[in-house]
Every structure is written in structure tokens, then in C-alpha cells.
Predict the 3D structure of the following.
Amino acid sequence: MSARQLWEGTDAARWAQRLNGRTKLLVLFLFAILMITVDNPRTLFVLFSFTLLLHIVARTSIYKWKVLAVLLLLGLWGSMFSQALFYAQTPRSPLFVIISPEAGILGQLTGGLYVYREGILYGAVQGLRSASMLTLGLLVCWTSDPRQLLQAMLAWRLSPQLAFMLVTAIRFLPVLAAETGEIITALQLRSDSQRGRTAVLRHLPYIAKPLLARCLRRAQTLALSVVSRGFFLAGARKRKEVWALSERSACAALAVLVVAVVSSKLIYLLSEQGFYFGVFRQIYDWTVLYL
């Protein structure tokens, strides 16, 4: 699979490609609210597993699974490692010492550097949030045509200029990857070097200038095309895509669920501040167990 095909959704399941762009963006937005609201590790893991299940149902290719796995591992590892070192809440239990407070000037400046057990757990929870959003975001990217997202934003009366810039940024990801691959190939042929990671790393300092020149040429061509077609003038006259009733119903049900979760969380937080009401006792218990 080429670098350009990696970021395109041509190999996804038909049902995922046919979903309305408004459905995908709304589900992504509501899911982000859930990730912010939920603190329970088990619930976060269930939501993360659900996003992985969606990839399976959408028939994400093996190559994309590999890319997703690398990104998830890097994100989780980075979150856990940073929180393990710089966790500032109490209580905290050091697992082992990296820099002792008595280790000369460095120890005096840092006050000692430890790996904390609570920091690892806290970082894992925070990593699940970012991993879930990354997984669902890549699913939307890999199953959507940029025109779907553009039509969705225009249907919500978003500024045509702003909607076009957002979609263009997404559309240029596969183009940028393909351009980078072509430049690396050209540099390897000119230098008569062997293919492999070592050769790619050696040519990295020489990629920026030709890549920037190609991006500027593409941007100029795109700007002339948009102006000549009168995109911004005719934005209001574009044919609106029909939003299926089943998709609208599913989005409405998800919105009701998110509102219920956020309301339960707010009621529980108010109880911690002294605003306790006995009628909400079941909501308090449910929030403690699952949120």
C-alpha cells in the first residue's frame, strides 16, 4: 500500500463510506465529550474497545492496523512515561529512583527524579482518552471522502472559506505523503544509494526544499481552480445531501446518552460541594461505579 492510499478511504466497507458526513462529525464530537466526562478506567477501556470494534466492522486493512498500533503504542507509552516521572498529586509511591537527590548538582536542581506507581496508572487513564479519540478520528479519516466532510460543514451553515480550509488540510495529508515518497525516491536515484531506512534517514535534510516548492505549486493551482469555479460564490447553491432518518435517529440517541452522562457527572460533582439531594442517590451510586 502506498503512502497516499494509507490516508484514503477507498478500501473501507461500503456502509462506512456511505455514512453521511454530518453523522461522522457529530458522533466524533459527542464521543469527545464522553472522553472528557468519564474518569472510570473500566468504562474508558470499554469505550476504547468499542472504537477498535468499529475498525473491525469497517474492515480496516492490515497495513492501516499496523500504523494505528504504532500510533497508539507511542501515545500510551508517552502518556504513562511522562506522568510516571512528573506526577505531582498525593499520595504517590516511588517504584525506583532515576536521579537521587544526593546525586550532585543534578540531584539538587531536580530534587530527585522518581518513577511513581500512581503516575503510571494516571498516565494510562489519560492515554486511553487520547487513544480512543485517535482511533475514532482515524476511522473517520479512513472511511470518508473529503467532499462528504465539506458538504456536512456547509449543511451546518459553516463559513465556506473555513470549511474549505479544514477539508483541504485533511485532503493534503495523502498528497503530502505521496510527494514525500516521490522526493525520497528521486534523491535515492540521484545518489545511487541503496533502499532502506538508513538511506531514507540520510536524505531527510534534503527533503524540505523540494517538498515546500511542490506544496506551493499545488496551493497555487488549487487557489486558481477554486476562484475560477466560483466555489465561495456558489456555495449556497450547492445541492444538499440527504441525511437519512436512521442516521439522524442514531445521532439523537447518542446525544441523549451524552447529555445524561454529563448531567449525572455534574450532579455528582455538586454533591461533593455540599449540594446533596437524597432523590439523586441512585444517580450518585451509578456515577461512582461507572463514571
In short: The beta strands are 94-99, 113-116. The mean pLDDT is 78. The chain has 13 helices and two strands.
